[in-house]
């Protein structure tokens, strides 16, 4: 039976990425060698890395605008540390927006490096909205926000206008919608949601921001050293980078970010439409801040849990359980999720309505 | 034509690891999902991580001896930073042995954290030997060494007797030979030589050593936090960990470290035997410190380069070029390399001798 994978991450990728990457494990580019055993300095893999880095800038409209794209290991959580190391001056101040678990984790790490001001937080309502109307201190070295909150199903629709460098963790909605990426100083994202398998993170950096903190930065945490070594300061995660490259190529073939955004809008409209229409369900996030990537919802009546769970599992749906911080259900509908799978979920919700009707 | 992959890393892995991991990308454990799209918290992957961690301790004879095994992202180079963060006290001192490029890189990072004493170095002879007879200061927080030097083809046959905690970078010879692993406080290794594909690193830690520096450690750099979260503090590199797990299982099926050491000894004896016998070649490392993983050698007469290169390429050999620091040739003969492939290289060396004979 076909599976419909609504997992929050690692998560669904295009079927052709699975097929091509499995083939590359058996024989990479007709070399007679597996992609798992080739040198990262081999001509063919250097080309993959260079093409992937260029493709990132192209898809973001940042080519020739002073940005560098890196594929580094360690996960987006390592960027929680690299960002203050590279941007927070000794005695300086960082500003953060607290919109959920991962934003809080980033704040916790920044505090180990210096003064950290949380300009606003939605913790008071279990992060079910995005704070607005906050002020970013003009003397902050940077402002950090999280564009999409995987756990709480909220997403920033607008980014602040400010002269302070914008740093954004886009782990769970990167490449899902048109944004003016040139507004940002640093964008980073773990690959394992919209971009590839777990094991690599993408970092896009406006190069002119670097080298100003006066800190002694450990080499592997220094963005400048990674830029100088063209994202090969140390051995990159060859296979995760390759699978991410295949995913980026797929995205370009789909028509890029503009085209995928239209599809993502249609999927989100279909699912939120059903949540709002069906009397058995309710969404958890405030309507204007709803995420188009992670759709969190609850049963109005928990007595229907067993029956609903039985229905969606029987339909081949997996990964629908909500995060423990919110409960209920979370349907992650990333770029690679076809609208047909969203329709299967909507049909199951309708079926539940029919079977429990009085 | 069959390829014989002598690459220094990423490098050859067992053929069954390629086949099983390609299959898992198409369908993991009969789940109908790819291993690239499953949650790292899924039951099946948690089992992989737990089994892999247990298998590491079993293969090292460390089960029940107060050690923890972790599979972390970032590469062995990140351990150059994690080690001083976790073991070097404020105002304390670290001791390092300088045996090559990677040892030097580790020293460079440690110096950013505090006093670092290099107890001995073989830089004076382009790292072609392992220093001996050095003294480790009794007041050092730890002593760091590199068991095998991939670039220079040298290997430590003995480790010092000392009360100072021993930290060892075993990236390029881990699981290749019997060692009393319980002598070490921390052992670490990038996966991409003897253990798996690039993208994860193994860290084995004697737990009682942690928590003593008084430093404020960023979470992702704190071994204790990774131990508390059972190597899932953040999303692990799912696929690289899985492929490493398959490689460790293969090693156990081969008879474990004892059995593979016998095979490695036979391969090294075959190749060094030919280097010493064949008048056209000479080894670069001092005989008593020769590596059984990376065999570095030169042509006595560079005029034979073109002919030799033509011969080994025609025989299906790849990855034989030496590192620029040494020149010549480097045959990396890791665990997964069959002796038949080493014989192919030896036959080519003999063929060169026949063709250039007067």
TrEMBL record, chains A, B:
GO terms for cellular component: cytoplasm. Catalyzes the reversible conversion of 3-phosphohydroxypyruvate to phosphoserine and of 3-hydroxy-2-oxo-4-phosphonooxybutanoate to phosphohydroxythreonine. Its main location: cytoplasm. This is Phosphoserine aminotransferase. Belongs to the class-V pyridoxal-phosphate-dependent aminotransferase family. SerC subfamily. Pyridoxal 5'-phosphate binds at residues 76-77, 102, 150, 169, 192, 234-235. InterPro entries: Aminotrans_V_dom, Aminotrans_V_PyrdxlP_BS, Pser_aminoTfrase, PyrdxlP-dep_Trfase, PyrdxlP-dep_Trfase_major, PyrdxlP-dep_Trfase_small. The modification N6-(pyridoxal phosphate)lysine is found at residue 193. Binds 1 pyridoxal phosphate per subunit. Its cofactor is pyridoxal 5'-phosphate. One of its GO terms (molecular function) is O-phospho-L-serine:2-oxoglutarate aminotransferase activity.
């Amino acid at each position: 039976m076909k599976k419909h994978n609504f997992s929050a991450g690692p998560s669904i990728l295009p079927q052709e990425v699975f097929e091509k990457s499995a083939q590359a494990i058996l024989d990479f580019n007709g070399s007679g060698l597996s992609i798992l055993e080739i040198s990262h300095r081999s001509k063919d893999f250097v080309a993959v890395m260079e093409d992937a880095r260029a493709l990132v800038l192209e898809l973001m409209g940042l080519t020739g605008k002073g940005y560098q794209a890196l594929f580094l290991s360690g996960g987006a959580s390592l960027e929680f540390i690299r960002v203050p190391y590279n941007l927070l001056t000794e005695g300086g101040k960082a500003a953060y927006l607290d919109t959920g678990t991962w934003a809080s984790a980033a704040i916790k790490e920044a505090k180990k490096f210096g003064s950290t001001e949380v300009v606003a937080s939605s913790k008071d309502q279990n992060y079910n909205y995005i704070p607005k109307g906050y002020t970013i201190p003009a003397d902050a070295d940077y402002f950090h926000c999280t564009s999409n909150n995987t756990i709480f199903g909220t997403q920033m629709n607008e980014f602040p206008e400010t002269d302070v460098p914008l740093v954004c963790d886009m782990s769970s909605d990167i490449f899902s919608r048109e944004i003016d990426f040139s507004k940002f100083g640093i964008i980073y994202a773990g690959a394992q949601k919209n971009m590839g398998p777990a094991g690599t993170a993408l970092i896009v950096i406006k190069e002119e921001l670097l080298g100003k903190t006066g800190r002694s930065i450990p080499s592997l945490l220094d963005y400048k050293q990674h830029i100088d070594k063209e994202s090969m300061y140390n051995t990159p995660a060859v296979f995760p980078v390759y699978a991410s490259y295949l995913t980026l190529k797929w995205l370009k073939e789909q028509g890029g970010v503009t085209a995928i955004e239209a599809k993502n809008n249609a999927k989100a409209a279909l699912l939120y439409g059903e949540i709002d229409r069906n009397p058995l369900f309710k969404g958890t996030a405030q309507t204007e801040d709803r995420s188009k990537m992670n759709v969190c919802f609850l049963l109005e009546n928990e007595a229907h849990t067993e029956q609903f769970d039985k229905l969606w599992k029987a339909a081949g749906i997996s990964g629908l359980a909500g995060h423990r911080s919110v409960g209920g259900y979370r349907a992650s509908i990333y770029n690679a999720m076809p609208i047909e799978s969203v329709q299967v979920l909507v049909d199951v919700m309708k079926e539940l309505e029919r079977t429990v009707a009085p």
